[in-house]
Amino acid sequence: MTTPSHHPGEELLLDYADGSLSEPAALAVATHLALCPECRLQVAALEAVGGLLLEETAPVPVSVDCLSRLMARLEETGGAPPTHRSPAEAILIPQPLRGYLGMPVAQIPWQPVLPGLDEYCLAIDARPIKTRLIRLRAEAAAPRHTHDGAEITLVLDGGFHDEFGHYRRGDMTIYGPEIEHRPTAEAGPDCLCLTVTEAPLRLTGPIGRWLNALVRY
Amino acid sequence: MAFAPYRTVRLAEGEALAFNAGMIENSIPGDARPPDWSRLVEAVANERDRAAFGALFGHFAPRLKAYLMRLGTEPTAAEELVQEVMLTVWRRADTFDSQQASASTWIFTIARNKRVDSLRRERRPEIDLNDPALVPDTEQPADKKIEMFQTSNRLHQALATLPREQADLLQQAYFEEKPHSLISVERGIPLGTVKSRLRLALDKLRKIMREAP
Fold first, then answer.
1. Which chain B residue lies closest to A36 (C-alpha atoms)?
2. How many C-alpha atoms does B133 have within 13 Å on its Cβ side?
3. How does pLDDT run across B16-50, given as a tens digit for each residue?
4. Nearest chain B Cα to A177, which residue?
5. Closest CA to B63 of B206, B161, B174, B178
6. CA–CA distance, B13 with B27 (Å, rounded to integer)
7. Any residues with CB less than 8 A from the CB of A18 and at least 6 apart, and which?
């Protein structure tokens, strides 16, 4: 099994490990981790640093009855959460994204954006950050665009290429606002991506400029 | 469920420490070795050992409270959250794997997630290591994990040798709420002094974790 060749990078992994990443970005990173043993190891090391800092921190005494109140709660129900087992078949969408999606890929109610390009918005309330699944039909090209903010893309199926490289399952790109690109899907299965965008995209191609008014990005 | 006998000892800094005298022999006064917190979590998992749980509480609860307060949680709310974290330790002790992480690392991740869940009113997306869609580790993961486990003491020492400004930055990264990272991604691509220092600190710690014992 091949492993990804484009990774979130140290800064994003640190923010994931220390808990400061927004929910949509953490979702993208955690789903990448499911596909990337290398980054899992890095996160484990960063979490070990967190454990170490917790260990080293100067303790603040808790109130005297804190332990006794807690001991009284140990019998509360909710003890054994149901262990959620997924069927052991080949699954396209790894956790935790699969749980957020809550349906098989075949049942996603896609919204057409442009010919060859569909989207489905995930219901995560983290405005202005938008979390979407994007489906780019095989060999279709998305309009050339830039972003007012950063954009994280995680490839889940198929692949795409742009001015900067080729991206396949598990690969993650992080583009800042200065980046302008035109993703084109590879031949083969449709390109399925999770995208997290901080702010609206701006189309920059000659046709794209007037599409800005029409496209609900 | 049997109540294991435990007694409470008040320590100098005011930590309430409850422990089973027979179990934590290596924590008797005069012996500098800390108790094996991993073994205590396992005792909670396997025997529902309340004494072991009390000992874990005595050690970790004041540290968790400090962690949460440094991240801006009010003392009362911090203590409520400490209870939630420790309740999760009690309930999910069976998911702890000492080959994968130390007890303090495991408890840190629980606290981090609880804080995100409750204070930011967000969900913390977590990886599921049992997910059939997970791409498994490529090379003898057991060896690497054991290596990481064994280096935790050396990591302690390494942290002590970091230059002050690097150690402070590391503390800030973990103990201070930052603006959403997407913003930091946007602004942080040309890494400033702050980030290069942080990177130096992490590189140093990572190098120590990777070196053969």
1. B135
2. 24
3. 333 333 333 334 444 556 788 999 999 999 999 99
4. B186
5. B174
6. 17
7. A46, A50, B112, B173, B174
